């Protein structure tokens, strides 16, 4: 990766597209779950309460209907399975005929869900005719649970320190190649095939929105967490492609304590990852890259922030009321909507601004009931260390 990603796609590169996302959907459909779009009347009531002071022309209160795209129920418990599966399957499609039976070694550096995703793909794609192995460069401080998941799929882990994972990854690739092995390197997020794979969740949403809200229905807003930007890029490109550049607002959600994408987006100058780490959202610590940064600038309308207190409160509410396990990085997006409705002090000012703008745009387009908004919230994953989350909940309760 270049030291300083630019606002334009790298020269000569074909950027990710809706057509590429649709092709990825057809490619990976047999291998991934079609995750549900979940609803909750209790969540809708709180979300509507949070924007009750948004002014509308006719004085009618804003009513929000939320659909949670539950990628926490995806294979390996996160959306990353989509991108990894698409990238590897597409690679295998283009293999020369005389290499179809040659052992393939997949290599990446990741301390999180992509590590498990690539290990899963290697395990799933191995056959008597084709051996596929995975080598994962993982930080020494990576979650033991995630390391156990990688090992459980039969992958090999090479330890590194957080600051030198790219160097160790390059060295491992050279070592394998020196042994005469065939190697394919896949970065965790800044890769066109991975971005298009992640965007396939919105191919499902295009149909699911009509199943949930009625024939012809589409979301007014799509809200998605953003870290390195692989998921956000795919979601944004697909959302704009399906629902129109002006027909849908695509919003990124980022932790206030790791707000590099927010700064890059509004400053129009790339910013590196925030150091030291100041958030519980461990899946959203990576800075955007050469492909994801220009993709966000071209397809995302806003990026809004939430504090960890709001995120933990939203996570606890969803665990208790919707009976699904989501990780802090997933709870961040609902937190930007719910604000202080769960007892915290954070006023969702930016979310209220966005809601007001969407209501006004719908009214100007002559839509019926412009104050009623349909919001898709992407829940990116559910991989947590249970004891850590329970301590967060206990601390929250002790402070009340």
Automatic annotation (TrEMBL):
It comes from the Eukaryota. This is Uncharacterized protein. The lineage of its organism: Eukaryota, Fungi, Dikarya, Basidiomycota, Agaricomycotina.
